[in-house]
Amino acid sequence: MKSFFEGIQSLFVDFLFLPMDWLRKLELTNWWTANILNWIFIIICCAAMTYWIKQLNIFKSNNEDEQDTTAHSFLK
């Protein structure tokens, strides 16, 4: 059983974490490049939020949104 868990350790440490080790070493030379994935996710989230707010404004201008002060019918 010990060799099974050592095999899992070897899989993660020697293979699956190699990109993370590369990013950790890259951060010492260039912080912006090491955090490129974070910047990509931030841009995607900003674009999604902009689209969502734009759609909310479209529904609000058409009076299709329902702004009820109670969240559920049992709160009335």
Using brief descriptors, characterize the structure shown:
76 residues
Helix-strand layout with pairing:
Layout: H1 2-16, H2 18-27, H3 31-34, H4 36-61
Oligomer: single chain
Strand elements, count: 0
Main structural class: mainly alpha
- Amino-to-carboxy terminus distance: 59 Å
Rg over alpha carbons:
24 Å
Order of helices and strands: HHHH
Strand content: under 5%
Which spans have pLDDT < 50 for at least 5 consecutive residues? none
Could you report the average pLDDT, rounded to the nearest whole number? 88
Helical region count?
4
- Apparent shape: elongated
In helices, the fraction of residues equals over 70%
Biggest sheet descriptor: none
Describe it.
The chain has helices at about 1-15, 20-25, 30-35, 35-60. The protein is built from 4 helices and no strands. The longest helix has 26 residues, at about 35-60. It is mostly helical and about 80 residues long. Keywords: Glycosyltransferase, Membrane, Transferase, Transmembrane, Transmembrane helix. Pfam families: DUF6341. This is Uracil phosphoribosyltransferase.
Kindly summarize this structure in a few lines:
The protein has 76 residues and is an all-alpha fold. Helices cover 72% and strands 0% of the residues.
